C-alpha cells in the first residue's frame, strides 16, 4: 500500500496533477496515521510525523510521487446571521467563549449543527438557518498551520502555554 508522508498546500502544487481525490469531513481531516481509500479507489496509508489538519485543496504526496487532492465534504452546518456587524461580533464572542470551531464570513458565521447552541444564539438575537456546506473553520491563533511544516529555525525554541481559565 502506498504511503503519504507529505502534505502540500494548495500553493505548492497544481490541481491538474491530482491522481485522485479524497473527500473528508472536518473531523476526518484531523489525522496523523490512518488507512484511507480515495474517491477513485486509490488505497493508501496516511502516515504524518504529527497530527495535522488537512485543508481543502491540500495534496497528499504518495511515496511514488502521485498526489491525492484533499476535498472538504459537505456537512450539516448552521448559518448564523445578525442584524448588524456589532450584533455579529457579539455572537462571535459567545461562540469563541465556548471554544467552538467557526467559519467567519462578511455577514455570518458557519458553525456545526447543534440545537443547544442554535437556541442560545437565537436567544441573543441571531437568525439561524441550516445549510449543508464544507466546514473549514478558522485555525486559531495558536494552531500554526496544521500539516505544513514550520519547524523553528536553529537555536530558536517554540513553546505554547495556554490558560483557558474563565
From TrEMBL:
Alphabetically ordered keywords of this record:
Chaperone, Cytoplasm, Nickel
SUPFAM superfamilies from the UniProt entry: Urease metallochaperone UreE, C-terminal domain, Urease metallochaperone UreE, N-terminal domain
Q: Which GO terms describe its cellular component?
A: cytoplasm
Please list every transmembrane segment annotated in the UniProt record, as residue ranges.
Answer: none
What biological-process terms (Gene Ontology) are attached?
Answer: protein folding; protein-containing complex assembly; urea metabolic process
Per the annotation, which location comes first and is thus the protein's main one?
cytoplasm
Compositionally biased residues, Basic residues: 156-166
Q: Name one Pfam family in it.
A: UreE_C
Q: What does this protein do?
A: Involved in urease metallocenter assembly. Binds nickel. Probably functions as a nickel donor during metallocenter assembly.
Q: Which family does the record claim for this protein?
A: Belongs to the UreE family.
Report what the protein is called: Urease accessory protein UreE
Identify the species of origin.
Sphingobium jiangsuense
Lineage at the top is: Bacteria, Pseudomonadati, Pseudomonadota, Alphaproteobacteria, Sphingomonadales
Gene name, Swiss-Prot/TrEMBL: ureE
